[in-house]
Amino acid sequence: MASVLSFSDVSVTRNGTTILDSISWSAEASDRWVILGPNGAGKTTLLQLAAAQIHPSSGKVVVLESTLGSADVFDVRPRIGFASTALARRVPNSERVIDVVLTAAYSVTGRWNEQYEKVDLRRARRVLAEWSLSHLEDRRFGDLSDGEQKRVQIARSVMTDPELLLLDEPAASLDLGAREELVQLLSGYAKAESAPAIVMVTHHVEEIPQGFTHALIITDGTVHSAGKIDDVVTSENLSAAFGLELIITKDAGRYTARAA
Ligand SMILES: Nc1ncnc2c1ncn2[C@@H]1O[C@H](COP(=O)(O)OP(=O)(O)OP(=O)(O)O)[C@@H](O)[C@H]1O
């Protein structure tokens, strides 16, 4: 099976600082990856490469069979769904929820004069239903709770039926109820065979949805460990990565971390 993502000896340097250092990693279409690591480890930079938003300083990144730097990124980007707070900040507060999702079909934020196709409207409504947002269709994005806004961001990112879905800390700042609601929805999505490859960055193992298959731990811009999720999300690996004795437990498909 062809890789959806392939990093070979990839480094990213900014202003003389090495942010990612010799990363080699690949993901298949059926994979659901979680990326873990301390603050500043390079997780968001890794996701920006996967999103074809930046180029590596050295090494080779292949996204959906296109090599960054040699392929036209404008052909690749529409095939990638990317939900991040940075993108959400570009959505006007006054935008209606249905339009936040619909405009993804035209790769813009903020409705202008696009003439939407009926088929796009039908799909947007189906996606809103899948993410438990139908009742909010006509509400203003800026008036939603954090949890609702996060779900709208994800709904927008899957609107175009992407071949690769990237989620940057989708559960950050959510309260317990909103987090659990989101993790449950993500879990259902991750388990669906029709879902694309997923790569999710998170700070907390409690936010890893059931159905995720692989994990990559990054420390100081390098891969600390990567592979099948149960082999990687362990007390030993996370203790070493965070420099603190941690006990990781797994119950009913969900992980918990606490200091030893
Ligand atoms: N343009 C830049 N110039 C210099 N350093 C940068 C630049 N952009 C990012 N960095 C540094 O690169 C490192 C990795 O940043 P990145 O945002 O990828 O980490 P992260 O693992 O996502 O962090 P966090 O968990 O805090 O969100 C950080 O130390 C950051 O300060």
From TrEMBL:
User: Which PROSITE patterns does this UniProt record tie to the protein?
Assistant: ABC_TRANSPORTER_2 (PS50893)
Signal peptide (from-to):
none
Ranges for domain ABC transporter come to: 5-245
What Pfam families would the database entry show? ABC_tran (PF00005)
Single GO molecular function:
ATP binding
**Which domain of life does the UniProt lineage start with?**
Bacteria
Against InterPro entries, the record matches this protein to: AAA+_ATPase, ABC_transporter-like_ATP-bd, Metal_Ion_Import_ABC, P-loop_NTPase
Keywords, A to Z, come to: ATP-binding, Nucleotide-binding, Transport
Q: Which family does it belong to?
A: Belongs to the ABC transporter superfamily.
- What is the name attached to this protein's record? ABC transporter ATP-binding protein
The species is Rhodoglobus aureus
